[in-house]
Each structure stands twice: as C-alpha cells, then as structure tokens.
Amino acid sequence: CAYAALGNKEASDANRNSCLDLLRVTRQNREVESRLQTTVQNVRQMSRWAIILSVLLILSVIVSVALVRRWRARNNRYATALMGLLKLCRELATFPVNHEFSDEDDVNKTLTSLLHKSFANIICDVDSVSIFIDEYPVEAGDFLLRTTLDGKKEYLRVVSSGAFGDEQRTFIELLLPYIRVAKSEAERLVNMGDERTRLEELNLSYSL
C-alpha cells in the first residue's frame, strides 16, 4: 500500500506477490502438518491393531498346542483303556479253564482279584471290586450282573476314589456279559467237580 501511495507500481506488485507466496506457503505447510498428524494417527492405530493381532495370534497358537496335547493325551488314554479292555475280555473268555476253584466262593475271590488288577488299565484309582447279592444297588459303582435261579439279584461293585463318570460305566457295562459268562462257567465246572466227587465216593461205597 505504501508503494502504491508513492506511485511505485512494480514494487507494490512485487510486495503483493511476496505476500501471496507467503500465504500460499503457509497454507501448504498447514496442509502438510495436517496430513502428517493424520499419518501419525493412522500409524499409531495400525501399530495398536498389529499388537492386538500379534497377541491374538500367540494366544491362538498356545490354545491350539494345548488342545492338540489334550487330544493326544485323551487318545492315548482311550487306546490304553481299549487295549486293557481287549486283554481282559480274552482273560475272561479263558477264565474257567485257566484257574482251579475249590468252591463258588473261590470263584468269586479269583474273579474279583482278576478284575481289580485289570481295571487299573481301564479305570484309574480302583480301590476294590466285589460281587454281592442284594435286592437293589446301593452305590454308584453297582452293576447288575445276573439274576440267580432262586430270583436273587447279583451285583458287581466297583469302588473308585476317583471320578466315576459315563466313560467308566460304559467300559464296565461292556464287560458285564463276559464277567457273567466267566462266572457261570466257572461255577458250572465247580458243580461238575462236586458231582464227580460224589459219584466217585458213591462208586467207592458200592465197591466196598
């Protein structure tokens, strides 16, 4: 304005252009600063997301490894239980001929001893195995084995200090037919032996 008042148009134009250039540069600097702030905010937000994704990835890997180990341990436990189950089925199939019994109480004692030893590979923490006659089951580990000729109910009792869940019950229920047949056949052999002894004694008395 001073140059214009003095009549120096060229100096006035140059001064005006300088002011306009200064304003343009200032505006550009503000735009650059605004873009820089936006970029910094975006970088910070992306960094936070990257950290969150990294943590989620690590957690996913840890959970996956834990699930795989649990799955393998469970499969190994099932495989061990099934192998023990198969072995016990074979032993029960040959139980009457592989043991000698003096009477039916001896059959029960030998059978429960075999079951107690074998259940360690099928059901953990088995405290005792017994066979008894009663009207109704009393404990969670009582399984109906058979009904005797005189109408009494015979139960198999498995006492475990650990958890006695559906899996353990399923394993034992699968074994019940084998246990029932093994016990019946062993008792039949005992009765046949007693009958043979009586016949021999009878023959001996007649011969005298």
For the structure shown, list the relevant keywords.
208 residues, mainly alpha, 3-stranded antiparallel sheet, 5 helices, 3 strands, 73% helix, 11% strand, disordered N terminus
User: Could you spell the SSE succession in H and E letters?
Assistant: HHHHEEEH
Radius of gyration: 45 Å
Output the number of helix runs: 5
Strand-residue proportion: 5-15%
Report helical residue fraction. Answer: over 70%
Main β-sheet, spatial strand arrangement: 1-3-2
Word description of this protein:
The chain is mainly α and 208 residues long. Helix content is 73%, strand content 11%. The protein has a three-stranded antiparallel β-sheet with strand order 1-3-2, covered by helices on one side. Helix 2 packs parallel to helix 5 (166-207).
List the helices and strands and how they pair.
Layout: H1 2-6, H2 9-93, H3 95-98, H4 104-119, E1 126-133, E2 142-147, E3 153-160, H5 166-207
Helix pairs in contact: 2-5, 4-5
